[in-house]
Write a structure and sequence with these properties.
62% of the residues lie in helices and 14% in strands. By secondary structure, it is of the alpha+beta class. The chain has seven helices and five strands, in the order ααααβαββααββ. It has two domains: 89 residues; 139 residues, 2-Layer Sandwich (Heat Shock Protein 90). The protein is elongated, with a radius of gyration of 29 Å. It has a five-stranded mixed sheet with strand order 1-2-3-5-4, with helices on one face. α6 packs across α7.
Length: 263
């Protein structure tokens, strides 16, 4: 019969049970940690795939606009100039005017594409001016009435957070105009304590919210998924409220870092 080491009293059944319970607790805790790590790894994999999908969709859109718009204008311009070189005495003034018009159209489309990729006004004048510009540009292009109300923002507003809000507003407006066929959109950005609240309401055709989220999770539509994932990366929440035929509300709540001394 084995004896306990010198100086240690023999363990009774109650102590052994406590040790087994503690070991089981540690084992369960370890299993939960491994499960959380696995869930986190899966989440980051999904996020990486979503980012990649959004990037590819954006590249596809840019390639289509460059080919169908600017590319065609430059090709037509080339034909006009080539025709002038071959027949210099045939309607020179008219062909030069056509070539000039094609140049102006191509330049205009390049500038519009550049502004939508990264509007200079966002860096030069800030988020409020950029949202006003976005609303005016979208309204002129679609005929939709778009109202913008931006409250007081911190003077040293974080540029990445500013970009995030602009991109969410840009995507939400695109959805409202292209898919929901909205005629009136209201956009409000306000500060509440240490948070920013973005509200975008449209009078479009609305949607089944659960179905919209399901489609986004199944990669059928990347715009909604990319908005939610970008907001989540900044510790925020994005909520949709809608019913078919009743318009849509998009609500975003983002934490705002407050510098010492600010209220």
């Amino acid at each position: 019969m084995k004896t306990p080491p010198i100086g240690l009293p023999p363990r009774n059944g109650e102590e052994n049970q406590k040790m087994r319970d503690e070991l089981q607790r540690l084992s369960d805790q370890q299993s939960r940690l491994f499960a959380q790590l696995q869930a986190g790894e899966n989440h980051f994999k999904q996020l990486a795939r979503s980012v990649w999908r959004v990037q590819e969709n954006e590249r596809r859109r840019l390639a289509r606009e460059l080919h169908d718009g600017i590319g065609q204008h430059l090709t037509a311009l080339h034909h006009r100039l080539h025709g002038l070189a071959r027949n210099p005495g045939c309607s020179v003034d008219e062909r030069l005017q056509q070539a000039s018009t094609l140049c102006e159209t191509a330049i205009s489309e390049v500038r519009a594409l550049s502004r939508m990729l990264r509007p200079q006004i966002l860096d030069d004048l800030g988020l409020s001016a950029a949202l006003q510009w976005l609303a005016r540009y979208s309204s002129e292009d679609s005929g939709c009435m778009i109202e913008v109300d931006v409250g007081d923002l911190p003077e040293d507003f974080d540029s990445e957070l500013s970009t995030l809000i602009f991109r969410v507003a840009q995507e939400a407006l695109a959805n409202a105009l292209k898919h929901a066929q909205a005629k009136h959109v209201v956009m409000r950005l306000t500060r509440r304590a240490n948070h920013l609240l973005l509200l975008i309401v449209d009078d479009g055709c609305g949607c089944d919210v659960e179905r919209a989220w399901r489609r986004s999770s199944e990669s059928e539509s990347s715009g909604l998924a990319s908005m939610r994932e970008r907001v989540n990366l900044f510790g925020g929440q994005l909520e949709l409220i809608s019913q078919p035929g009743e318009g849509l509300q998009l609500r975003v709540r983002l934490p705002l870092t407050v510098e010492p001394g600010e209220s």
